[in-house]
Amino acid sequence: MSIVVAQSVPPLRSPYPQQMPVSGQHAFACPVTPTPIVQLATNSIYSAADPKRATINPAARQRYLAKIAPVRSYAKQLVKLANNYRQHALPAFGHCALRWLNDWAVADALSQMDSLQANLGRGPLLSSLALSYLQLNELPGDHTAERVRIENWLARLATDSINFIESRPNAPSSSANHRYWNGLGVAAAGIAANRRDLFDWGMDSYRLGIEQIEVDGALPLELKRGKRARDYHFYAVAPLVMLAELGAANQLDLYAARDGALHRLVQRVIESLQDAAYFETRAGVKQVDFPEGGPPPNRLAWLEPYLARFPNTAWEQQIASRRPLAATKLGGNLTLLFGSEVATVQVQGAR
Questions:
Q1: 3-class DSSP assignment, residue 211
Q2: Parallel, antiparallel, or unpaired for β 39-40 and 112-113?
Q3: Residue ranges of domains in the chain, CATH in brackets
Q4: With a threshold of 0.85, does the pTM exceed it?
Q5: What separation in angstroms does the CA of 250 have from each of 8, 124, 200, 335, 347?
Q6: What is the pLDDT, as a whole number, of residue 224?
Q7: In which element (H, E) is residue 276 found?
């Protein structure tokens, strides 16, 4: 008679190195938690007359910014609190971030997405929340009740993202950058709640993305964005790199998948910093110029984890003057979280 021994599944791991909090009391006045936003109905910023959705409608953009402002402000301040905890190891910052998350979880914030754009945009919001929470893993004290509440809330938002994306299987957005961003949010929430099903859906989102990467590194669906094809390649590569990092923290070498397809995309994007000719040829139209001669730092923040793992002196020189590189939807200051010695520790620990 053979005996079957059940093998335990290890808990999902955060991509951040272990934090050792500083002991003692440190003065910090935690700001009042912003009022939770439960219902959100945002609109597209693009002109309905442009089938490529590349021409911004100024009035629509203003309406969108007004609607999203309270949520963006909350997320931006939240990641700063989490980043301060990671940087200074002071529990007061972490306790404040946890309080902010708990207050929004109590209110079941972001549970009513009442427009197409709001549903599509849930992913980046969720990733900022979940990645902030993952930075608080070693926070001292008994926060069991708060953690259960927050993790259940993040898991509910992740499930909402999955249900929405899967309800529109033939929509381009369900296979393009919106899918990758929702995948990142869902995977990060999966790690936070130790939900393997959510994590796996996020990893499937990554695989769906890299299956589309062409031999020369382009994403066909992003090429369809006309004069913003280059810009949307920058937007699409960010969640894919971060998903690869979440995978690496959990023994998945996603960078090697499909013969290193992600590396081809990264190279294509970085080469376009200096010359948009490739995208102008493929998209058939002149590309929108970068403001101030280059993309804003938040569009380059994903390079910190990538270069920590795959050093490239030339690329380092291109971003050196722009540091620190931070993106709220990627967890904040990625120069802090992945750069220099911090990144080296993380890379070794994730393999």
A1: helix
A2: parallel
A3: 62-211 (1.50.10.100)
A4: yes
A5: 15, 21, 11, 22, 12
A6: 97
A7: none
